[in-house]
Amino acid sequence: MTQRPLAGSFRGLRRIAVLTALALTVPLTATTAEAHSGVEAAPGNPVIAWNIHAQTAIYDTAKQSPTTSTRSFAIVQGAVYDAVNAVAGRPYEPLVSAPRSRPGDSPASAVAAAAHDTLLWLFPGQAESLNARYDEALAAIPDGRAEDGGVAVGRAAAAAMTESRRDDGFDPTAPWTVGTEPGEYRLTPPGYVNVGAWVPNLKPFVVPDAGAYRVKPPPALTGAAWARDLNEVKSLGAATSTVRTEDQTEAAIWWDDPRMVEWSITRQLAGAHRLSSLRTARLLAMVYVASADTLIACYKAKAHWNFWRPVTAIPLAGTDGNAATDPDPDWTPLRVTAPSPEYPSGHACFTTAVTTALGSFFGRDDLTFAAYSPASGTTRHYDSLQAATAELLEARIWAGVHYRFASEHGHRLGLAVTRDVLNRAFQRR
């Protein structure tokens, strides 16, 4: 055995359909050549197996937030992509590195080494469990040159990735600016924690400048647009709302964790389409890297506008200078508000990146999928990526955590960043 490496109908749906269609024109569809690359097909896909191990390490064990975990997944899946791409003869442009490989190198051992080493770099305290998963993976691969070669490729890809992410701006303790004037961000209940302000300063994985993507200013507090959107979330998003339907409540809860679409649906589609290890590695890297760069750009906009969330704006609506808004000091949202400024919606940015990357990879929007949420205790079914995205944008209003304008502009920003990521990376050589 090879030695272990060291340590409802959404307003503006037509606009969404047009923008989604534009995103799907990115020339990133799978080709027949990929299917005959010599990399084994699912089932028994090591890329999926190690993505599940990564979920265990990042989320179940480390308990990272959705925002923090996006960086971690991008690091792991980016290294796995570079490793498998190298073993397959580098048919695609590498993300960070193109390690030397030889014909016959084991893709399974390359995946195991790349994923293990990046996870160990991220979570050295999990060495025992990560080493056990690694030993288990290599035990299923015949000893010899193929295994050794794959491990060498995987280790090289992981080393290049982790070196590229040293001093990348990750600082979980960085605080947001908190204001006291109408419209300015205030810490949100129930925890009133001040975390996550490192994201705007994180080095992007692909795009040169995450600050180049702009969203227009939020509505003026004295205008009709502000009153309309505030009153909408006040009515539909209240914990005790009498106008929100049962299905809307279910959807709001189901979509509350942004990882639902990234984990369940992405892996489900990879399995349903019986993707090879190469195609799976490319798909997951596209999804995770696009969502990471999108969140960086999204959070730069959040920091710039520093706008208040509904949970603080509604009780203080009497200070906004707008006669069409009334304060409700007892108002609470259906779901807990994330500890970050409002505008634009991070979930809208994130989910748009994921669904756009999926659509670009498969070259179509009409993908059928379903997923179960432990939070809602229900399974929701979708016949297209566009339908899922449109429901998510509404669900953030139903949850009481975002205004409509924040979701709409988060969606637009997500499309812009993801198109750029996919135009710059993962292209066939």
From TrEMBL:
Keyword vocabulary terms for this entry: Signal
Signal peptide: 1-35
Protein name: Haloperoxidase
Matching InterPro entries: PAP2/HPO_sf, V-haloperoxidase
Species the sequence originates in: Streptomyces flaveus
